Each structure stands twice: as structure tokens, then as C-alpha cells.
Amino acid sequence: MGQKSNLRTLQKLTPNFSILTLNHKKFIHGFNFFKYWNFLLYKKSILSVYQNIYFVENKLVLNCTFFFRTLKLKGYKKKILKTNDKSINTDSSRYKLFHKFCLKEFKVTGINVVVLKIIALNKFFCYKTLTSFLLKNKKFEKILFNRRLHLFIDFIKIQSLFIKNRVSTSSVLVILAQIFQVLPKQIHSRFLNFLKLNFKLIVIGLRSRIKGIKFVINGKIKGKTRSSSNIISFGKIPTQSISKIVDYSNIHVFTVYGVFGFKLWVYKV
What we know:
This protein is an alpha/beta fold.
């Protein structure tokens, strides 16, 4: 009986950030910069999809791909109304600390110029796909997204970008973890039905490059005393070929019922 191969060992993993340099000092300071930079993005409700840093002489070039959350856009509009269409004052203690941190980190390496290039994924939406996801998930809005309308809108947008291969599986798992984190045990079965509907729509209902999805959730589902595993699979996921494009990600979700593990495999053509 043949044994199945582990996709994590066969498939090359692509992290959501990379630091291109041969200097070990610049690599360490660049890694520290990434940690504080991502923490600042998290506080500003910005989802980082991919980041790339490379050093050219005394310059640091940072290429970023962001997804601006709905909560961030709502807060931005409120600030615009308060300031009467004037520029937003960014001279706060948070930005001062970040500026001080950058000076401290890169003064040692001799960097005095930072070039920032940002790609916003919010302009790549397909409204036809958004409408189809919205109509299919309308019945779950009050059940899973009670008082969290902004999260429901973010999920619809992420799904439309996911079909177009604009975001990775890790970004999808971040949104799914935030949805599941506060759900009571009575609604866990509704959450599984919610995933089945959306994965089936991606693989079968809509024409996309995704030909197979496999999702595994481990933990005390429905508040049971012992942990169990639930598998949701649509399409095909190759396990014996290295040449196939299989994107894999996992995440831990901390809830009042314990820690849950989410794993997601996506087969793309």
C-alpha cells in the first residue's frame, strides 16, 4: 500500500516577505524592521499580502502589497470629514516611535534613504464576482457576522481576490480565523456549512484557476471534550507530483474552547 507524500516537504513554501541581501547585519536589522512594520500595519487594520526588501548602496527599497480593511477605510473617511478635507495629521506618538526605531536600526548599516513602493489590492476587485459571493453568503450575515459587518465585507473582497490569484492562502486563513474566533459552540456547524458553500463556489461554481481545495480544522469543535478533525474537500489535490502548484498554509486560532488548527491546501492550474 503506497504512502502519501507530505506536501510541505515536496512543495516549495513561499513566505509573505523576503529580505534580499548578503550582509548579515542588514539582514538582521531588516528582519527587526519587518516585525515592527507588520505590528504597525496590524494596528492600522491593513493586511499585508507580500513584502520585499532589498538594499542598494545606502538605500532601502521596500515593495509592499496591501489590502486595506473595511474598518480602515471607514476610519479614514471619518478623519477626512473631521478635518474638513484637509490633510490628516500623522505626527502622533506612534509614528514618532516608528521613525525613531528606523533611525536606530539603519543608522548602523549606513542607510539614509528609504524608498517605499505600495500596491493596493483594493483596486483589483471584480464586481461581478463580488455580487455572486454576496448573494450566496447573504444568509450567513446575521448568523456568523453579527455586529461585524466590516468583517463580512472583508471576507467577500478577499474571496474575489483569491479567485484571481491576488492573495495567498495565508491571507484567507487570517480572515477565516477572525470569523471563527468569537463564534459560540452552537454555531460551529454553521461555520462548516459556510466553508463548504464558498469552497464549492470557488472550485465548481465560478471559472477560476483553482481546481481543488482541501481544508482541515482540528480542535474541540462544538465544545466537545475531545478534539477531532473535520475535512472539507472539493476538486482534486495532487499528493505525488512535485511539478503541480499546490499552495499550503496553516494557522492557530485561539478561542474560549481551546486552540484550533486551520490547514488549507489549494491546487492551482
